[in-house]
Each structure stands twice: as structure tokens, then as C-alpha cells.
Amino acid sequence: MSIARKTHLDSLAVGLLLTCCMFWGFQQVLVKATVGEVAPVFQASVRFVLAALAVAAWCRWRDVPLSSRSEPQGALRGGLLAGALFAGEFACIYVGLQYTSASRLTVFLYGAPFWVALLLPHFIPSERLRGWQWLGLAAAFVGVGLALGDGMAGPANAAMPRAWLGDLLGMGAGLMWALTTVVIRTTPLARVAPAKQLFYQVGVSAAVLPFLSLALGEPWGWQFSAFAWGSLLVQALVGAFVSYLAWMWMLAHYPATRISVFVFLTPVFALLFGALWLGEPVTPGLVVALGLVAVGIVLVNRKPAAA
Predict the structure, then answer these.
(1) Which of 48, 94, 115, 251 could bridge to 206 as Cys pair (CB 3.0-4.6 Å)?
(2) Where does the EamA domain lie (predicted)?
(3) What is the residue extent of each domain of the chain?
(4) Could you tell me the pTM of the whole model?
């Protein structure tokens, strides 16, 4: 399957990325609000089982074959590897949230664009960032650090003596996210329809995460409130289906290093939604952070000067 690729982001890509990052920021708050009622990894399990069913239905409707017989040789191995990395990423996120705050874990998770920028150009030279683009990546990361700095330095951290474990899990999640991107872009999986790429990821997660939940001794039950059920449906159908399908489509059509930097907006949006939902103050540091993230995105996506 040949997919036409673009070298720079257009208005469609920017609009999709902003919408996805805004929703992912909201989803951070939503997941945290649901953990008290639905155990973390069990919550992820239900989310990806529902998402796998939705993606499978989408593939049938769009005549995207789910059988591996029609795929390029090696795509199945790439798909299973991407799925395993995707499942590992979310296992690290949900387990890590039990040891550290969401803001601390988010800092390390959203280091993923650095890993992409470091790893992907070794396989695809056209994805290499130039000097000002590295500066933009650094500016965006510093902006996120400033936005989350109050939460990381607050007195609540004294009550989390094992925060370092959650931090390491967050870093591992970010690395696995980046490696998933590398696998998708550098293996025969790149020639598979984006919906099928996503099916590998949510399908493997749906198969693996329930066993991890049981191994962790999480309670399983189905007597959830209307809010919890609504949260699970939104996480599955909007988060793990619609937004991730849009992300897979963008990975297939645009440079991964350029779209990845947009994810730095997600934790900033999470803080904004926290302010709107939980009444948390918007500090001058957050305003500066938003400016740095905006500058970083502009620099990373700046077109090179004509030779």
C-alpha cells in the first residue's frame, strides 16, 4: 500500500494535532478522576477492549482487511511489536500513577518527542532535525517543565516516598511511545492502512492488560456509576479510537519528528482543564510555558531555507 507523504504540516494536520492534544489533556484529568472507582490497569483493559471492537468495526466498514495474508511481508511482526510496545507504555502509565503524581509522570512521558528525534533519523535521514528545530524542541520541553514545576516542587511530594519509581515508569512509557513510532515508520507496517496499524496496538493491549491487572491483584467489578461508565466510553471511543486513529493517519502522511513535538501541548492543556474543572490557579509561569511551547512548535515546523 503506497501512501503519499508530505514534508511539512498543513492546516489540516495542525488542526487535528491541536484537537487531539486538547482532548488528551482533558483525558488525563478524566482518567485520574475515574481511578478512585475503577482500578487503574483494569480501567485501561476495559478501555482497550472497547477500542479494539470499535476499530475492528471501522475496518470492516472501510473494507480494511484484518487478516495478515494481504499485508507486506514482515508487517505482522512489526504490528505485534508495535502492539507490545503500546501495551507496555500504558501499563507503565497506569501503574506509575500509583506511585507518583500525574504531573510528575507526565513530564517524563512527554519526553517521547526527544526519543523520536534521537532515534528515527538513524533509520530515516529526512526526519533529521536541524539546529533551530532542536532549539524549538528544547524550548517546548522547558515550557512543559515550567508549567508542571509548581506541582513537582509542592509539599505533596513528601507524601510520595516512592515517586522515583513512578518517574522511572513514566520515562519508560515515553521511550516505548517513541519506539512504537519508530517501528511504525521503519518496518513494513508503514505500508499498512493506519486503521490496521491501530488495530494491532489496541488489540494486543486488550489481550495483555487484563492479565496484568489480574497479576497486580486489582479488584474486578462492573457496578460502576454513570460517571465511570461515561468516562470509560469516552476514553475508549474518543480517546483510544478516534484520536489515535487520527494520530496513526498523521504518522502515515506527515514527518513524525514534526508532529511529535505537538504532544508537548498535552500536559499544558491538562493543567488548563485542571484549572477549569478543579479551580486550580493559572500562574504567570503557565503563561510563559504556553509561549515557550508555541515558539517550540513554530521552530520545529519551520521550513528550511531554499538552497
Answers:
(1) 48
(2) 13-147, 165-301
(3) 11-300
(4) 0.79
